[in-house]
Design brief:
By secondary structure, the protein is mainly alpha-helical. Helix content is about 75%, strand content about 0%.
């Protein structure tokens, strides 16, 4: 594997660390911020103490890392159409991350009459959820067949289930007004840890037989 391919794939390993560090640092500059109750988007919401620089620390760098990782995936598994589709979905996730930073939510992120920016923010967030959820579903199928890793397939399936479950808990939290921040963090943690797991497997697993790749 070429050094450029390894560097691109390694960006997937960096994503969870960047997310954790960026959110932690930004929240420290937001007086009274509650990780259990408040959405991560509130760090960049209109009128928040960190609105001017939260996207520069979180959304935009993460968008770049997802784009680099998607490129690495496409190069690593270019013989598989489904793997290329998964790379496209990861790239879409990066576009969604860019959108959530470019279009901040309204103050508190729960306006009764959301602005256009809030609506585009919500659509970007939905794109982020759907893209990585579908990508993990693909690798629940591809993990063993393409990468030769039953562990990757099972890990992808487990992350898929957990992403759906925690998304449901987020919906309940919106209704109850309790612990939305916690469930959102659990949901996104599952997604970015899956990305790191896929990056690790892609770095160490040999490519499958080219004839087999053509079928997949």
């Amino acid at each position: 594997m070429k050094s450029v391919d390894r560097a691109l794939l390694a960006s997937g390993l960096l994503i969870p660390l960047w997310l954790l560090t960026g959110v932690w640092l930004t929240a420290r500059a937001y007086p009274g911020y509650d990780h259990l109750q408040q959405a991560m988007s509130q760090l960049g919401a209109a009128g928040s103490p960190t609105s001017s620089w939260s996207p520069l620390v979180n959304n935009f760098p993460l968008a770049a890392l997802f784009a680099l990782f998607a490129w690495g995936l496409a190069r690593r598994w270019r013989g598989s159409k489904l793997a290329l589709l998964s790379a496209g979905l990861v790239l879409l996730h990066g576009v969604g991350s860019l959108g959530t930073g470019w279009f901040p939510c309204d103050q508190g992120c729960a306006a009764a009459q959301p602005s256009t920016s809030q609506q585009l923010h919500n659509l970007s967030g939905l794109l982020m959820f759907l893209s990585l959820t579908l990508a993990s579903a693909l690798w629940a199928w591809l993990g063993n067949r393409l990468a030769g890793s039953r562990a990757l397939a099972l890990f992808s399936l487990a992350c898929l289930v957990l992403a759906i479950v925690t998304a449901g808990l987020m919906g309940q939290a919106v209704e109850s007004g309790q612990l939305f921040g916690l469930y959102q963090r659990l949901n996104y943690a599952v997604s970015v840890l899956w990305v790191a797991g896929l990056a690790s497997a892609s770095l160490r697993k040999p490519a499958a037989n080219p004839l087999r790749l053509a079928v997949i």
